[in-house]
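Hi C.,

You asked whether I'd gotten around to modeling the 299-residue construct. I have! Everything is below, sequence then structure, no commentary in between.
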Amino acid sequence: MAGMAVIAAALSLAAPTRAATPAGTRIVNTAQLVVAGDAPRAIDSNTVSVAVDALVDVALAADAASVAVTGAATLPVAFTVTNSGNAPAGYNLTASVDLGASVTAIVPDVDGNGRYDPAIDKGEATVTLAAGASARVFVLVAGAANGATVAATATAHAGSGAAGTLLPAAGPAGADAVVGTSGARASATSRLAADAAAARLDKAQSVVAPDGSARAVVGSVVTYTLVARFARDCPAVEVSDVVPDGTRFVAGSMTLDDRPLSDGADGDVARLDGSTVRVALGDMPAGTTRTIRFKAIIL
């Protein structure tokens, strides 16, 4: 259809992650000895306990591997920083760009809509995140050149270094902290290109079995997550995904940016067309990110 950008889903698997035990949690254990005989009795051991130290860790990812050079005076390049530790943490963001371009600022995505708005997205090049939380920042580039690389780095305020490095009194309430596997410092890059793809669609899945495990067995529910990112203005966008053979669509499970969608062809943007999930996003401005989810049960 003329004037319509249709994106078909491409599959990439994402293993479900397990939340880290929160810093400060006290792990307590008492054993028991049972004496049998005519007068059986139980004898408790002494109780031992240990408090979980704070883990200082971070992950950083470019929202797009390449960003189109538009000719605008300021080009926003989006990165997402994630607190992969087990306690609240602050991070400092730095960035650089080559080929004669310059970084003028690093600002947070204040309203979380994935699109840079100079009237709203203002602030310092620091973020503070709860354990497991993520935030998007924009690296603002002036004089963007085709082929330039934008490099961003997030470093924990508490300190960084080799994994296992002790950071005394750097955790909550003055508790000790330990540097995680990232070294509490992470970097990512995005390339500026005149021929960058106008849009990108990433697909992930998570599985929950009837017994709560992540096994793919009969009765397991698979949640599919589609993330559409737009490097350029794209008109009349529709995302479609065929519910896989061997599964059945779970009625009422479609969401767009975590807002529920109906299955029928009615007033909202989604519909189940036979065995195909369709979501009409409409005109998408450059810099926009939209997230679609639906569920299917394994037969």
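If it helps when you're writing up: Residues 197-298 form a domain with the Immunoglobulin-like fold (CATH 2.60.40.1170).

Thanks,
B.
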